[in-house]
Amino acid sequence: MTWRIAGKTKQKQNRNPVTQFYKAACRMNRLQKNHTLSSEFVILGFGDLAELQIFFFGLFLIMHLVTLAGHTTIVLLTLIDSCLQTPMYFFLRNLSTVEICYTLVIVPNMLANFLSRNQRMPFLGCALQMHFFVALGGAECFLLAVMAYDRFVAICKPLHYILLITRTLCLQMLALACIGSFALSLTLTTLIFLLPFCQSHEINHFFCDIPAVLFLACSDTRANEIAVFLVCTLILLIPFLLILLSYGFIIAAVLRIRSAAGRSKAFSTCAGHLLVSLPHYGCAVFIYIRPESCYAPDQDKIVSLIYTNVTPMLYPMIYSLRNKEVKGALGRLLHSHSP
Fold it and tell me: Pick from 173, 156, 110: which is nearest to 312 by CA?
């Protein structure tokens, strides 16, 4: 009887509001600790190739420096040289500015990852990296489409070029490209990072890419995949189709030019743009416009290296080596500073 009374007394004591509040506080404290511990991601990078980390670090560091030097040169040339003050070089200057920011969002963290086995990135840092990556990549896609339209007007409607491609229109198209890409990126990034990540926080990639982060979500991601598809349709497919349409008209117009020199000049001007556009859009479409079931981390990392490191480095080379005006401006700049 005494034991039962003691048991009842013990139960009553456990129902004490102060005791329950204390236990609830302890549980909240544990949840906050767990949340704190899980509020960061681990970027795995190329950890499975540990013996080649230093080699990759040196290789991609050189590529990064060449990329920055090339795009910075284009920006300076198109600002300084009076012969490069046309709409085409206005867009080229802004494209190079976007490329500089684009590579700075990804490559420095990737290089740091080569020197450490597992690079930790805060939750907010990962979200910001994804946001700027998608926004700057989208701005690049829109600018490539705008540049295709500029070439279409220049070749197919040369007499109306000055009237159609005004400075005001150039500024409006640039603003629309940047605002549109940043708005779409903010919407998509918010939708992705509202998902619960209650399982692994190890991102099998060298940056916070969309498929790699979506793969870690522990809830149904079909709605998010639809959002990714819609955003990528607006950022990738529509600009790419506009580029193909523009160059279809351009090729038809060039073939009607009687002068061989005129055809050669027109093709030379447009070939560089096509060489820039095709790898960029091809790799991006391969990565982002597909179902999550086709996610292949190792394959994605290799393809991502192309459009985050290789193509940005090739852009200045393509534009400078195939463009006599840019080479002439560079020659004048070097000559003016030579002793």
Answer: 110
Contact 244, 207 (CB under 8 A): no
**pLDDT of residue 26 exceeding 70:** no
pTM for the full predicted model? 0.82
Burial (Cβ within 10 Å: 0-12, 13-18, ≥19) of residue 157:
middle
Q: Is the four-CA dihedral 263, 264, 265, 268 of positive or negative sign? A: positive
Q: How big is the chain by its Cα radius of gyration, in Å?
A: 27
DSSP 200-233: --EESSSS--HHHHHTT-SS--HHHHHHHHHHHI
| C-beta of residue 109 within 8 angstroms of C-beta of residue 43 | yes
User: CA-CA distance, 14 to 2, in Å (whole number)?
Assistant: 18
Q: How many residues does this entry show for the chain?
A: 339
Per the CB < 8 A criterion, the answer to whether 226 and 68 are in contact is no
| Residue matched to tokens 């705008």 | 146
Task: Report the C-alpha gap between 231 and 182 in whole angstroms.
Answer: 11
Asked if 132 and 101 touch (Cβ cutoff 8 Å), the reply is yes
Whole-angstrom Cα distance, residue 125 to residue 49?
Answer: 25
> Quick one: which of 107, 95, 113, 112 has its CA closest to 65?
107
Q: Which residues pair with 40 in a beta bridge?
A: 122
Decide if 231 contacts 181 (C-beta within 8 A): no
pLDDT of residue 6: 42
Strands 40-43 and 202-203: parallel
- Please, which residues bridge with residue 120 across strands? 42
Average pLDDT, the chain: 82
Q: 102-113: b or e for each residue (b if 16 or more CB lie within 10 Å)?
A: bbebbbebbbeb
Q: What is the pLDDT of residue 231?
A: 92
Sheet order of strands, 40-43 included: 119-122, 40-43, 202-203
